[in-house]
Amino acid sequence: MPCCPKLLYLSLDALLKTQNDDVRLNCIAFLTVLTQRGFFQASHANGMRTLASNADTSLQIPNSTDGCHLYTLFTEAIKGPLLSSDEQVQIGILDLIFYYLSCEENPEKKIQLLVESSIGDYVFEVLRLAGFRDPVVNSCLRVLDILSTAEQAFRQTLAVGFTTLIPILQCVAEVPYHPCQSQILKLIWSCVSNFLGVATTSQCEELVLILTKMLRRHREGEFGMLSETFTIICSIFVSMIKHPSYHDLLKLIIGVQEASELAILSSLTVSGMNSNQILQSLYLLKEAYAYGHEDHSTNNSNKGKLRRSIVDVCKTHILPWLVTAINETDDEEVILGVLETFHFILYQVSDNLARELAETLISSSWFSFSFESLGLFPTERMRWRVYLMISSLVDILFGNDSGQPIREAVSHLPSDPSDFLFLLGQKSYRDVLLSSCQSATLFILYCSSLYDERLADDKLVLASLEQYILVNSFNLRCGSTDSLTIFLLVNLYGLYRGLAKMSYQISYSPEAERIFFQLLTEHEWDLACAPIHSISLKWLFQQEKICISLLTHQILKLCRIYSSNNIPGIICGKSGRVLDVQAIAQLVVSGDNYAAKVFVCLLEELVNEKSQESDLLSLLNLVEHIIGILPDTSDQLCLNGIAKAMRILYYDSGPNFSPEVYSDSLIIIFNLLSSVHSESVADGDAWVTVTTKLTDQLIFRGDMVSFNHEELLILGILCLILYHSTNGALMEASKTILLNTPLTSMMCTIIHQACSSGPTLHDDDEKTISGTILLHVILLQYFSMRSVHAVLPGTIDWSSFLDKSNTMPVLPLLRSHCHELCMLIHYGCPLVKVVASYCLLEVFTRLSDQRQRQHEDFKCSSVYLKSVMAVLEGLLFYNDSRVAVNCGQCLSMIFEWEMVRSGTKKVAEKNKWCRLIVEELAMSLAVPSLVSKSCSNNHKASIYMAIALLKQEKVPGWMRSVFDDACISGILQNLSGSCLSTELILLFRELLNVGFLTAEHIGSLNRVLQECRKLMYHENVEVDCEEVCPGKAAAVRDDTSRITDHLVHLMSYSSRINRGGASGSKQLLEEIETFLRASAEEGNG
User: Fold this and answer.
1) One GO BP annotation here (predicted)?
2) Domain annotation covers residue 381
């Protein structure tokens, strides 16, 4: 159409000059049709010369050959309609602009002209006034999207109009798949990226909230989102966190933390893997971690939470997804993207979170995954990424640039792990490249095996290691090999030899073993330079050829390190945490190696040298912690002769060491004897010598009032020696204690002085020096009485304890008369009462045994016996059940004795206090709903006294009235299978024996007993297990409470065992069976 240029010109001129919206609509419609048909392009191609010659002169059309005047006219003509109040006009002109700019392949000049003519400002103003009307908003954003392609020219316009975009985004973001989401987000991204600080703090915070909400709704499945939208959102977050002005913005930190997690979760869980989304979310995650790692931040704690969140996402989401996705995708870029993200975090070597991620990766079979990746994607990029990441893992886990050998050889390392073994078996003499590859191979094998990953068959790896040792023996022995290589060989060769032994594989190369041991002898190496596999460690300590000559030196190094780093339970080397003391303790306790012997030999060596006291202290410190971690190590140490080393320390070395050495050795001796089983203690001269030295030290101090922690520790050791003698061990050492007259005299003096204090004795509790000394002396008396019965049986007349008028025993036994023990029980502090009551119970037990054995009564005044009974009766309701039960059992033995006809029976018959106790017991048990385990525990002492009265040859008559039919029926009604105790069953058994139970009573009780037995078996009670000794105590410096507690528990245990007591559950079942049999016999009779 030759007239089209003229029509365009006339239409634009009309649009420019008219103020009527109807005319504008017609002009816009006509221009839109012309634009869509390409007449603007045609006019530009043909020029305006024809139009100028044919046009009316009144139009004054300039002579233009390039159409620029037409463009200018278009630019001016559209401004008026853009400012129109008619929405249809605005939408029409915006659509015209869109078609005008998009109809050409290269509209850059048009766009530039529109931008320079401030059309962008007009459009932003239309957008601002649109009031969220969707048609206008859509048209505006379409035009702004095209105008933004003129990046340089549009920047200023975009910066000015940025404030308009945030409210519009808030509206658009609420609509899933809104057609303009990507367009407005691109505008925001462009603005945030190119204009530093264009958004105010409040605008940034609002933008963060909007974008995070979009991702959250998308993650939860209620909001669809285009891939392009997802990508731009991630890019906006990245742009914001890169701007310094936003670095300490709290809402941005929190928003980035949530957004990075939501982005990852959304991209990983979407059906049908979208590689671009995954890569974008990984990019955001990486940049967020860098953002959280920046220094000089005022929000360090919040940025720390951000880093923690990212590492948690990597551990709990990305890593599991990666392990699964590796076999489901052929997109190498995605796998590389994940590896790059992990590697970026690992590269922050000083970060504890990087170490945490490294430990998670390495414990998730990372080496196997890495080589699986190389098998699936055998490209150069993947190989470099895998090996560089492994080198970073090694750096983090072992420190000191440990991964450098891998980095140096990365370009030559194979992708197939089986090729490692081939490389390892080659001779590398003067071949630097091969030697480098072999070093990297050893490191990779070491690291993988340390976490129980096997890159090849164990036999093949062992064969390759032996081949490496054999063909490279000259290189290894010439001195050019560093200590780290030797350590790697130690760990690997020991590990695979240990595994071969465990699988009963006997075949190995004796020559390789000989060279290996020779290498260990000739080269300096350090067991603490890096972690070592437990199997390798055990195999090394099973080799007698190197244990004493080499491993003692290595143990000494470990002791020095452990003493210097002062981290309980951990040995830290140059690479950080190397070895747990737990591992060494397990090695010692297993007994299938020479570890215990190495420790003992090293101790003897250091004591004999008498020069390196610091080394001796370090060794004693490590041994102390080993015993504290696994008390059963005491058995192996004693079996391997640690007592001999202590004898040398105490006797042969003389005053060559500081008090600290002797103090540490005392702690070790106490811990040994408190933990060792008696059968593991050899009754040799060594312990006798040590015991003599310790008792001499006590006697040398003389004044016991000034005893310090060491002397109290020695008293505890003497108690333990005496305890072991009751089990047949340390008999001679115990005699040294029992027959030591000066020691006995000192101890007796302490007890006599305490008894003379009267009521003021209560103030001397275990928190005072005098109270602590008294407590240890009474404990020593108890264990002495227990020991003398085992070590020197039949040499003590136990009746001498019963009356102060009697002569002292022939042996210089540490002892107190019964009335002194009663004074201690009556006036002493709570713990003194406990220990003294056990002493009195021991005396009464031995008196009863002696009476039965000799078949004669004791000569004891009635007044003395009554005074003893008065004290015991007063403590039957003491709040410590141990004191109450012991006093009750002592009373029961007095009632069972038939010494003085006018004494005991008469006392038992007419004692109103006894009757009151039994009546209170019966009432407590018979009152409805009051019987429980706690109730019966509180009345144990009363039950024992009631049992003793029922065992009398002539049961007191009032007992029948107390335990009448109504009382017994009431007790039975309160009983259930869950509230029975051993003492209650013993009471019912005695009531059965004296005929107080009717057939109905027996039937009801039998049902309760059967219910209790069924309940116990249902709860899987271990009825066959033997009760073990109380928990082992570890003595500590300047703290006697743990020592005292252990001795008191040991006393309680030994007292119960001495009387034939069993563990609670086992004894209860035994008593149930005994009663059921007795009741059956009663019924048959």
Assistant:
1) meiotic DNA double-strand break formation
2) no
